[in-house]
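Please, why this fold?
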Amino acid sequence: MTLTGYRTRQMYRRHLLRLAALLPLLCPAAAHGASVGAATPATGTAAIFLPGSLSKMQDMDFGMLAVTAAGTAILDANTNAITTTGGVTLVGGTPHAARFDAVSPAKHIVKISLPKQAVKLTRVNGTETMTLDTWSINGATTRNVVAHEEFQFAVAGTLHVAANQVEGIYAGTFDVTLNYN
């Protein structure tokens, strides 16, 4: 190895050291591991809604029905009147729609959601069933409501009675949901 070759390696090393020392000055973002772009502040937001209230005031009641053949009992949500078909006859009681009372926490458009499926009413202390479907409401399912003021609505439906329906009291539940927009 010649002395000249040794100097070349030394000079090469010096240039590398100088370049490494100048790198933080030439590119400060790379030296500190930070991004090259400027910082931009961001804002976080959230919308808070107080829950509304919904109370059942009265259950749905089809009254007392006599059955000689299959048929239906149709309850009107506006008038509480019963219309029967087939071998079903209203023989007593005070039929009425289910009644609900609600309060919105703010001025909203409220959509009242009725069941999408039929529900089964089961004989108390038995296993026999009837079907309740074709849901109806007094008024529109979408309503403009005022903040903190009550609004009421009624829900009714159609009861399907079998030809040999066993005597007794039948009961079942259904869901009503309020969606605030």
Remarks:
- The chain has two domains: 3-32, 53-180.
